[in-house]
Amino acid sequence: MDYFxxxxxxxxxxxxxxxxxxxxxxxxxxxxxxxxxxxxxxVLENAFAGIAPLICFSVKSxxxxxxxxxxxxxxxxxxxxxxxxxxxxxKAGAPADKIVFAGVGKSRDELVQAIDAGxxxxxxxxxxxxxxxxxxxxAAGKRVKAAIRVNPDVADADTPExxxxxxxxxxxxxxxxxxxxLFEAGRYSNVDVVGIHIHLGSPIPAAKTYLAAIDKVEQMVxxxxxxxxxxxxxxxxxxxxxxxxxxxxxxxxLTDMGDAICTRLQGLKARGKHFIIEPGRSxxxxxxxxxxxxxxxxxxxxxxxxxxxxxxxxxxxxxxYGASHVIWPxxxxxxxxHWTALPREDALADAGLEAIDIVGPICExxxxxxxxxxxxxxxxxxxLAIYSCGAYGMSMASQYxxxxxxxxxxxxxxxxxxxxxxxxxxxxxxHELCGLTGAHHAG
Length: 443
Ligand code: LLP
What we know:
443 residues; alpha/beta; Lyase, Ornithine Decarboxylase, Chain A, domain 1; nine-stranded mixed sheet; 21 strands; binds ligand LLP
């Protein structure tokens, strides 16, 4: 579900022409649809209504303050993994009692900050970390709640290797067979260990992967409660899929995913447990696109190559994970005008399309968005839309090759508003100290 539509041969975002956004705010530019964020949050609320979880949006997927504020205004909580993300969450107005703090390597300073802010729950990843949380809480004279992130040794074969986190070979969590001891009564003076957290990877395209892990968690709850411990919270993590429309196999819809997970959790619900989920991409991926402009077309050995003004510094996913995004011109009247929407798979063989590489300007071979992609014949100056970039797009952007990060624009109710300005040359050197002054030191 989204609000990115072609009207008279031109891509519009909630009624605003993509071309106008690029003309006004430059290219490349990330463009988000506010209503898509709201709708996806509502879809998740409905899909998981059977366990009525606290939904904590995974800030790392799309961290702009305006995005966080929009979701907080819908009643959404936030999942943070660093002091920086916690700073963003609080600045966006998230109530501390709706913030969960995850992450494998929380520093002492981050713990001081989080305990001072009064976050709702820590997802602890090791015994050493629990000891540190306990020490910081004791020094602050506060009691805090923690869930243990367990590693259930469950992995989905279709999750990319680099983002699969539930298997025994990964660094994440405490092996589930070794975690019971961390729940022993009186072990920590200022931490109540009252929850179990899993996060299996990102994305997890099939419900069966969650169900296998939930079964192990339920057995763990049985063991702990038989031993007199009380578990209050089960955190199922994130990783619910977005529809990128480039997947080799169909992915589970959010409604089916929610149904299956809620059904499997009914036993724990009947025992009074409360639930948390940490969705990122299922809310943000399809709420954002990247607009990028063709700088040059050249003929390579095998194929034509379109060099665009965005590179791996702007959108890293294709380079890092081999991720595939739909790419299509934002305007295509001059190609014959017979496309009224994104092309269907079976239409790709139509005359008028040619295979072309879409590459960035960065000095690396891996700096491409697609190789041999079927597109209408392109020319310099054409504006392309790279779809489903709302998650892990801007949040993973860098200044590599000393290129500033692009602007971000939010469209809401027919109005486009800049929510992050484009970085300029002065931004590139803003933190560098070399004793230079004057004209050569931009600033
Ligand atoms: N909870 C935890 C503990 C996580 O580590 C993550 C993501 C999430 C929730 C949210 O996962 P989501 O619902 O967004 O799939 N950069 C990669 C994805 C890395 C995900 C890291 N952790 C990508 O571009 O696909």
